[in-house]
Amino acid sequence: MLIIVLLVLLYFLIPVVIIWLTHLSKTIQKIGAVVIAYVTGLVFGNVGILPNASAAFREILAGNTCLPSDELMTYAEQGLIPGSDLLVNQIAGLQHTLLNVVIPLAIPLLLFSLNLKRWLRLAKGAMFSLLLGLSSLLVVVVAGYFLFGKQIMEGWKVAGMLIGIYTGGAPNLAAISTALNVEPNQYILTNTYDMVLGAFCLIFLLTSAQRLFNLFLPRFSDSHRELVHEQIRLEQEDIDNYRGMLTEKGIPKLVIAFGLSVLIAAAGGGLGLLFPESAQTTVAILSITTFSLAASMVRAVNRLEKTFQFGMYFIIVFSLIVASMGDLRSMFSIEFLNLFFYVMLSVFGSMLVHVFLSWLFRVDSDTTIITITALTYSPPFVPVVAGALKNKDVIISGLTVGILGYAFGNYLGIALAFLLKGF
Fold first, then answer.
1. Which of 56, 104, 154, 175 is the most buried (most CB within 10 A)?
2. Coil, strand, or helix at residue 381?
């Protein structure tokens, strides 16, 4: 019991330390709290701190995360598994429970501060570029599913996760993987491949993309420039700032936001219980997303400060937990080659198709680059790439695309996954 309590404390306190470190070091901040949590979790779960399951126990699990304790006790009494597997199962049960709690709480907090009406009004050019980006992603992910995904165990779930990665990054990936009950190793390896391949893509966007795309795409013109610089500057500067959350002024607002998140999560979970067991988690996640978007339109809710950052805290907790469940020994093997190619096609293929569509519809190079950035790497990367482009006027387009990706990526990813499941 003491081990379980300590584990819970570690899972919720380590992210606090990681966030603190991001404010101490600009280098750590650029790497990102989610990536740091992910790496920490992998180390935590693979250096012997947590007990390892026996081969017999893994065979009995048959792909499940854990088993009912009474059933496992029977196996132990019969001598089919060692007694140490009882603790392994208990820890796995705790991890599974925490994962199913933190995501329903994170989604409302991430969406409360979204001013959906304003973002839908702001940039027509960005909306068109978003449409091109989503179209490119759908074409490539669907094509990749038939090329590689059908050779991957539950490849339809990978397709859904890839939509999540390239519409909202870690938050959408976490939500969709929870909704689809994705096996932890598959989640981790998909995310790992994306981070490695995505790093090369980001370097290209920061260095050579503008010069190359300007050869055949229209250049960004003054007709695109918006007159909302100060509003957008404040928005993008605040998105990754956790300061002020635990102040006398900030805590009451976060308590209110947390209470609303609990109510929305409970309502979504309750609605999910009305459906067959196989669909309950999916219905719950989509319901929570819908209720959260509706709540964001209530001015008093929308103006609660630091709710997005509070939601990201739970995403960091999720990343730490799910990474600690991964088994590095079984991850890097030839059987995952199709998954690697699927992710690679999604990263580079969607960019190529997007650029082709931008050429076809005469979308300028800077808007194309910032849209790819916002969808592939999420809003916090938008000002970084905008700075490299020497064009901060595209920040509004990037934030619009990225924030709408947060809002609608869950629907798109889950819908596509179940559509492909039928093939």
1. 175
2. helix
Residue 140 half-sphere exposure, CB side, CA atoms within 13 Å? Answer: 26
Gap between the Cα atoms of 149 and 345, Å rounded:
11
Q: Cβ contacts of residue 272 below 8 Å, gap of 6+?
A: 279, 280, 281, 282, 283, 284, 287
Angle between helices 84-112 and 170-179 (to 10 degrees): 120
Nearest to 163 by CA among 418, 410, 423, 397: 410
DSSP for 302-345 reads HT-TTHHHHHHHHHHHHHHHHHHT--HHHHSSGGGHHHHHHHHI
CB neighbours of residue 375 within 10 Å = 28
Q: Rounded to two decimals, what is the model's pTM? A: 0.71
Neighbours of 27 (CB within 10 A): 9
Contact status, residue 289 vs residue 111, Cβ threshold 8 Å? yes
Query: Which distant-in-sequence residues (6+ apart) come within 8 Å of 99 by Cβ?
Result: 178, 318, 321, 322
Residue type at position 420: L
Phi then psi for residue 244, to 5 deg, are 90, 0
- The span from the CA of 242 to the CA of 404, in Å, is 22
How crowded is residue 59: how many other Cβ atoms within 10 Å of its Cβ?
A: 11
pLDDT tens-digit readout, 302-314: 889 888 889 889 9
Q: Round to whole Å and give the CA distance between 240 and 382.
A: 12
Query: In Å, what is the CA distance from 56 to each residue of 60, 85, 92, 128, 327?
Result: 6, 9, 16, 54, 16
Q: What are the pLDDT digits (tens) for 77-136?
A: 777 788 777 888 888 889 889 988 998 898 899 888 877 776 666 556 677 888 999 999
Closest CA to 257 of 307, 297, 315, 293: 307
Name residue 387's amino acid: G
